[in-house]
Amino acid sequence: MSEILLQIDGRDVEAKEGMTVLEAAQSAGISIPTLCHHEKLEPYGGCRICSVEVEVRGWTRLVVSCVYPVEQGLVVRTRSEKIDKTRKMILELLLAHAPDSVQLLELAQAYGADKDRFKKQASFCIHCGLCVRYCAEVKKKNAVGFIDRGARKEISFIPKIAAKECWDCKECFPLCPTSALQATYVLTEALTSSSPSSLQE
Ligand code: SF4
Ligand code: FES
Q1: Pseudo-torsion of CA 82, 83, 85, 88, nearest 10°?
Q2: Edge to edge, what strands does the sheet with 59-64 contain?
Q3: How far apart are CA 92 and CA 37, in angstroms?
Q4: Ligand 2 centroid to 35 CA: how many Å?
Q5: Gap between the Cα atoms of 74 and 120, Å rounded
Q6: Quick check: pTM over 0.70?
Q7: Ligand nearest to the CA of residue 97, numbered in listed order
Q8: Per-residue pLDDT tens over the stretch 142-162
């Protein structure tokens, strides 16, 4: 793999071909906020909170750093008025769904986002897909998935698989940026009975 030299926030950063801008920044100790990214998972690019500005041949544009590949001579800015405004808007929209999420509230404070800007549509899940992708890609179990589409999209445990796999695993729980995952798990359990083995029905 060949070395690629780029500039992030005015610093020269060396990266390997195939790395994303987010990975290059992280390897240089430069922090970019993320919500749907996990180093063990395939790049997803769902939440866009990691958006940064890149300058290529004199043109500046916003790109999603967790999926954007490094390029020789790329100039990257991780903070600017435009970036901060974008992150603020994303956070305000997500907070309408998950107003109590500690992770979102911390980011909201950093970017001056107003958690009450948009009408609450508390679904608690922000569709980051971390739980679904972790279970499929890392655990290879597919015990949790999305049902429905668009605004009605929500996560759901597959009772039959959950009964066999989830009780001793729960590795997805700490990944969830909201309380939606645990709540859905508890609900699945409660709906099927009080004991984990009865999730099989
Ligand atoms: S339940 Fe949590 S981890 Fe799963 S998609 Fe929703 S917000 Fe993400
Ligand atoms: S962390 Fe990059 S799009 Fe979510």
Answers
A1: 180
A2: 11-16, 3-8, 75-77, 51-56, 59-64
A3: 19
A4: 6
A5: 40
A6: yes
A7: 1
A8: 999 998 877 778 899 998 899
